[in-house]
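Re: the 595-residue chain
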Amino acid sequence: MAGLLALALAGCGNAGHTNGASGEGSARLTLDINGVNVDRVEYTISGAGFTDIVGTLPVVDGRDPPVWALIAHIPAGPSRTITLRAYDLSGHVLCEGSAVVDVLDGQTVKVTVALDCGTTPEGPRGDVEVDGELHVGPQNLCPVLHSTFVGPEQVAAGGTADVEVVAGDAAPGDPEGGALTYAWTATSGSFADPSAHATQYTCDASGVQTLTVVISDGDTSCDQTVTIDVACGGVVLCAGVCNGAAAVALIAASDEHSLALEDDGTLWNWGDNRYGQVGDGTTTDRNVPVQVSGLTRVTALAAGDDHSLAIEGDGTVWAWGWNLYGQLGDGTTTDRNVPVQVSGLTHVIALAAGHGHSLALEADGTVWAWGDNGAGQLGDGTRTDRHLPVQVSRLTGVTALAAGSYHSLALEADGTVWAWGDNGAGQLGDGTHTDRNAPVQVSGLTGVIALAAGRGHSLALTDDGTVWAWGYNSSGQLGDGTSTDRDVPVRVSGLTGVIALAADEVHSLALTDDGAVWAWGYNSSGQLGDGTHTDRNAPVQVSGLTHVAAVAAGDGHSLALEDDGTVWGWGRNGDGELGDGTNTDRSVPVQVTGL
C-alpha cells in the first residue's frame, strides 16, 4: 500500500540569514489518516549548510477535515531532503518515504512524498495520504510580496498617507492565474479603497496606527499579511536611529558616484555628476548627498558607471545620467539630469547596471535589458544596442541579477547561475573565453544565493556562506591568493559566514554574519579600507566597521551601511563620492554626512 503526503514549501522573505541561507521556507502539510494504526508522523529535513531539522507531527485518526501542520524556519536553498516516517502506537515504523525539493525564498513549491506502507500479518497497516485536492491538477502558488510603500510616514491628525503593496502570484499552472485580492484594516482611521493594492489612508486619531493588509489568492492557508505603521497627529515614528530623520535602507555605488535610499522612499546621490547621474537637475559634482529630483516612493536602486536606476513603489523604473547607448531606456540617446521613466516596464522588483547597459527583473521571473550590446551583454541573441528594454533569452524563474562593465549575471530559483556578454577574461565562468550573446550556465555552481560583478570578474555566494570567484584577476580581485585569471569558479580564500557581496572594477567586498566587512583586489586609492594602498589577493578586514548591514562598491571607492542607519565610505574621493564634504581620498572609513 502506498500513501501520499503533500508539502507546500512556502518561502518567507526573512532579511536575517540562518545557517548561511538566503531566507527561510515553511512546509505546510495536510494529513488524511486512513486506518487506526498511525500514532504520529516524524519528519527530518536535511541539506547542505544546516543541521538536520527533526520533529514530530501528532495525528488524530479519522479526523475530518484532515490534520494541518506547519514546519517553519527551513533554510532556503536547493536539494532539501524531506523524509517522513509514520509510526504505530507501539513505535513500529508503518510507512516511510522521502523526496528532494528546492526550498525557495519568497516562493512556494509543492511536492508529493510517496510513503511505502506495506502490510503486516494482522492486515493492512495504517495509511497516511494527502487530501486529493492538493496533489491532483494545477498546484496553487501562494502570493509573494515584492515591495511596500507608505508616504509620508508621519501625518497630521486628519491627514492622509499613500500606501501600496506590490505582490505577485502568476505562474504556469497556477489555478488562480495570479489573481489577488487585498483587504486593508487599521487600528484607527479609514481607507479610500480598502480592497485596492494601492490606496490612501486617512488618520482620525493621534498615535502610531498600524495598517494591515491581507493579500490572498483564494487559498486562505497561505495568505500574506503585511503591516505598516503610520504616525498620526504629531507623534514621532522612529526608523533606524530615532534622530528625527529617516534612516538609510539601501546603498549603491559605481564608478565615481554613490546613492542611498532612505526608508521614507526618498533617494540621495553624491559624487561625479558630469552626465547628470546625481539626478538633481544639474551637472555639478556633489561631495555631500543631495536629493534626487521627483522620486519619493523608491523601493530599490542600482548604479551604472555614469547612470543611475530606481524602482518606484508601483513597479516602474526610472533612469538618469549618461545615455550614449540608450541605457536610460527612454527610446533616446539623450543624457538626463533628472529621472525619466524607462519605457514598458511596470512590475519590476530588482535592477542591475553596468558600464553602458541596464537590467531589470520582473515579478514573473523574466529579465529585461537595454543599452550597450557590443559584447552581447543584453542577452537577446544579437549585438545590437537597444534604446528600449528587450527580453533576455532562455531565462525563467530568475531571482537576482548582477551586471559587470560588459557582462551580465542571473541567478535562477534552482540556485544555478547564468552569464552572458564579454568573456575575454573568463568572467562568464563557462570554461571558455568566448563572448556570449545569450545566457550560458556558469560551471560547477549550485546552491547560489547572491551575485556580484566587477569590470571583468564575477562573484557568487553559496548557501553554506562561502564565496566563489572567476574572471579577471590582475590585482587579486578573485581573492584566491593569486593574480591568475580563472574561467571557472574558484573559492575565495578564508571566508565563511558571508551574507552579502559587492564588486566593481577590480576590487571585491564581502559582509560576514558578525557585521564585519572584508575586501580584496586593487587598492591604489585605499578602497580596501585597511589603512594601506597595497593590493591584496586574499581578503583583509576593513578597519573600524563591526555592525554593517550592507555593502556597495564603486570604481575606486567602497560604501557600508551600518545597522544604525549611518553610511560610511572609503577609497577614491576625487569627485566627492565618499560624501564627507571633501575631495580627499580615504584609506579607512569616514562617515557620509547629512544622511
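The chain has no helices and 47 strands.
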